[in-house]
Amino acid sequence: MTEHRDLDELLRVIEGDAGCTAGEAILDAYVELELAGEDPARVFPGTAIHLKSCPGCQADHDGLLDAARRFAGVSPE
Amino acid sequence: MSSESTTTTGSHTVRAAADSESELWIKRLRPGHPRHDQTVSRLHDVLLRIAYHELSRRRGRLDSISGPEFDDLANQAADDALVNILRKIDDFRGQSRFTTWAYKFVMFEVSGKVARHTWRTHPPSREALTWDRLPDSLASGPDDRLEQREQLRALSVAIGELTDRQREVFVAIALNDVPIDVLALELGTNRNAIYKNLFDARRNLRASLADSGHPVLDEGQS
Asked: Residue B78: its chain A contacts at CB < 8 A?
């Protein structure tokens, strides 16, 4: 099973993947839903799938979620 | 791969209108507002803090960089993010707070600059891009079952049958852990194009293995 699981991961393809460009456009809205305690996968299923497979977009997502949490409520004053 | 656009419309719960703080940011960042310059400066300060924070989070990819070079990278990321934000401010639709939208530009700049730094200091080796044989971590050992050895042999053949670009991308990312943005720089393209190549390569390899009688079992299947 280990070998199978490794190969499954190496060749993982999840249909419905929205790709990088689609996710970049809505990443802020995606993160905002997470911050509000909602499930972003209901609204952006293709990006939820994509974030499981693309390490580059996953890093951007994790960074944005962290920044939006830590630096929330910054006013222009 | 599918588009996300059809799912972003309709009655879904996405912030429909900007909150008052976001409206204030947008109003003051418009050219001609009496507090425009102060607000731009305030935004730059915030973006710089975000850039430092994010660069620190990704420090593992920046090994030797420190001091003035680190400061320079943070400042460049904040400067470039600010330029993009001001250029695209009319694109802000209130689907998030203004600050969340703005911070997104810092993430993209940091990603790009970290990748460029890695590419300059540790470009992918020729071995990481060329296909010779399955890496030792995958190659079958003497105790492996015949079925597994045959599956890996079929995978090896299938990799050889990919298009040149699909093979190059699969070998670099999946087998040699080259970061996707670094590979995009190396090949003179962008993350999305590389991801599409990788997606297609994986799908073709799965299909080839299935066609040759060695399907990859999904997790949970026996």
From this structure: none
CB B195 within 8 A of CB B220: no
Interface probe, candidates B104, B185, B198, chain A, greatest A C-beta count within 10 A: B104
Here the ipTM equals: 0.92
The one-letter code for the residue type at A51 is L
Q: Say which of A13, A64, A74 has its CB closest to residue B46.
A: A74
| DSSP code string of B15-80 | --S--HHHHHHHHHHSTT-TTHHHHHHHHHHHHHHHHHHHHHHTGGG-TT--HHHHHHHHHHHHHH
CA distance A28 to B144: 47
Average pLDDT over residues B83-105: 96
Q: Convert the pLDDT of each residue in B176-190 to its tens digit.
A: 999 999 999 999 999
| Residue B61 confidence (pLDDT) | 75
> Which residues of chain B have a CB within 8 Å of the CB of A25?
4
Q: Which of A2, A4, A42 should we substitute to test contact with B (largest number of B Cβ atoms within 10 Å)?
A: A4
- The structural domains of chain B, ordered by start, are 19-121 (1.10.1740), 127-211 (1.10.10)
Q: What is the pLDDT of residues A4-31, one digit of tens each?
A: 447 888 898 999 999 999 999 999 999 9
